[in-house]
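Summary for the steering committee. One of the milestones for this cycle was to obtain a three-dimensional model of the protein with potassium ion bound, which we needed before selecting residues for the alanine scan. The sequence and ligand used are listed below.
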Amino acid sequence: MILELDCGNSFIKWRVLEANQAVVFAEGVVDSDVALLGGLHSLVGLSLHHCRLVSVRAQEETSRLVDVLVAAFGVSISCAAPSREMAGVRNGYEEYARLGLDRWLAMLGGFRLASRACLVLDFGTAATADFIAADGKHLGGFICPGMPLMRNQLRTHTRKIRYDDVAAERALEKLEPGLTTAQAVERGCTLMLRGFAQSQLELARSYWGKEFSVFLTGGDAELVADALPGARVVPDLVFVGLALACPLS
Ligand SMILES: Nc1ncnc2c1ncn2[C@@H]1O[C@H](COP(=O)(O)OP(=O)(O)OP(=O)(O)O)[C@@H](O)[C@H]1O
Ligand SMILES: CC(C)(CO)[C@@H](O)C(=O)NCCC(=O)O
Ligand SMILES: [K+]
């Protein structure tokens, strides 16, 4: 079996594939290394041989996780690394190694699935957009705060914006003007994300007309999905790219 890990800024997304790489044996989202280990140890019938991993965390933090996994499971681990060109995509950054690896892998995944120009949108801790032309050239992208950051900035920098997770969830049943603080904030931030997404869509249209695909990924993809008709929600897009960047051989 193969363990795949996407270590984001807030959460670790993990899944275990059967040896044939076609069937998902188990998967989850955790908020710490300890929780990851706990989740894996509780799986009956787990038999790991390889691990592939992408991280946008600090080097030391990632190395610590790698060491723990090697000690616990004796697996060989392959970490995605920055690259100028891979799977037909050419990194467009002035300094290619500075492009977030989650963005890079989502781009590789999107371009592989689309085989044409694509716009890749990722809604996690940060929200990101990346543009890949039909010939594989990465034209660059945009980064802005995602839902968790926008919400927390408002909570942290005001005295009177306070509400719980239940109120937050219920607030998003509609997008009408809010009549409570929770509704006003949750809906306002959702509209910010949708506006971000729609302006990327307009830019993509100005470049490519109708000849492009739009991919949506990240934990908050569903918040913007119905504002972008025709977009494909692919929750495991980073993992699609991870398999391309870290093939087993
Ligand atoms: N099952 C889930 N577990 C955790 N967060 C989830 C889940 N489903 C949706 N979310 C939402 O997804 C967001 C986090 O997104 P995601 O997990 O893609 O990124 P992240 O690890 O926080 O950050 P990064 O962008 O660095 O990868 C949060 O706003 C959270 O509310
Ligand atoms: C933008 C995030 C935080 C999104 O997860 C990540 O891709 C990252 O840390 N990127 C490095 C900066 C950059 O991509 O320019
Ligand atoms: K991410």
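Key point for the committee: The mean pLDDT is 97.
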